[in-house]
């Protein structure tokens, strides 16, 4: 099912019943799209269109830790990746959604997962300046010395003055 088809199915089923544990999730995939072969949810994007994201990724990027936990409990794979190789943890770190980062880590997400370019969630947090998300990742054992495919690491991606070399953490 293409993203456009998934979007149409999502709209058509938007009023369908959702399990009580997930009724606060917005947006939340209807039951038929949760764990189907596409495993994607059309999510509004910045350009006014829709991006196809796995449900767990959409919840993580939105910072909905309750939805992340519910999806993981229902069997969502914590390290499933999008077309670019980014996992839900990459998206949560990129958005700086600390509660979602912690929920994913508690659910078994690989702290040093790499995307298609070799970047880790910690690199995403550093690039966006999300110190709290970076700290949560470091506390979970993220490697501050990992490098991506361009041989750049956290220190290369972070804004000047963001990383405290003495503590090995964001300022």
Task: Explain this structure.
This protein is mostly helical. The protein has a single domain, classed as Serine Threonine Protein Phosphatase 5, Tetratricopeptide repeat. The chain has a two-stranded antiparallel ribbon. Strands 3-4 form a two-stranded antiparallel sheet. The protein is globular. The termini are far apart.
Describe the protein's topology.
Blueprint: H1 3-12, H2 31-34, E1 41-44, E2 50-53, H3 55-62, H4 65-73, H5 88-95, H6 98-106, H7 121-128, H8 131-139, H9 154-157, E3 163-164, E4 169-170
Antiparallel strand pairs: 1-2, 3-4
Helix pairs in contact: 3-4, 3-5, 4-6, 5-6, 5-7, 6-8, 7-8
- How do the SSEs run, as a string of H and E? HHEEHHHHHHHEE
CATH class: Mainly Alpha
What proportion of the residues form beta strands (DSSP E)? 5-15%
Q: Would you identify the CATH architecture?
A: Alpha Horseshoe
What count of helical segments does DSSP give? 9
Note the main sheet.
2 strands, antiparallel
| Widest β-sheet, arrangement of strands | 1-2
**Unreliable parts:** 10-40
Fourth CATH level, the homologous superfamily: Ankyrin repeat-containing domain
Structural domains: how many: 1
Net shape: globular
CATH topology: Serine Threonine Protein Phosphatase 5, Tetratricopeptide repeat
Query: How far from one another are the termini?
Result: 45 Å
Kindly summarize this structure in a few lines.
40% of the residues lie in helices and 7% in strands. The protein is mainly alpha-helical and 171 residues long.
């Amino acid at each position: 099912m293409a993203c456009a088809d998934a979007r149409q199915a999502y709209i058509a089923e938007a009023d369908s019943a959702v399990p009580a544990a997930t009724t606060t999730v917005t947006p939340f995939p209807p039951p038929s799209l949760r764990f189907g072969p596409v495993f994607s949810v059309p999510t509004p994007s910045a350009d006014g269109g829709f991006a196809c994201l796995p449900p767990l990724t959409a919840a993580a990027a939105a910072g909905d830790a309750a939805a992340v936990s519910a999806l993981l409990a229902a069997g969502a794979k914590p390290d499933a990746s999008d077309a670019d190789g980014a996992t839900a943890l990459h998206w949560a770190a990129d958005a700086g959604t600390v509660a979602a980062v912690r929920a994913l880590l508690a659910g078994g997400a690989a702290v040093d997962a790499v995307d298609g370019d070799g970047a880790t969630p910690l690199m995403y947090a550093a690039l966006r300046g999300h110190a709290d998300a970076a700290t949560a990742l470091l506390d979970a054992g993220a490697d501050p010395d990992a490098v991506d495919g361009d041989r750049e690491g956290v220190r290369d991606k972070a804004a000047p003055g963001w990383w405290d070399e003495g503590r090995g953490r964001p300022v």
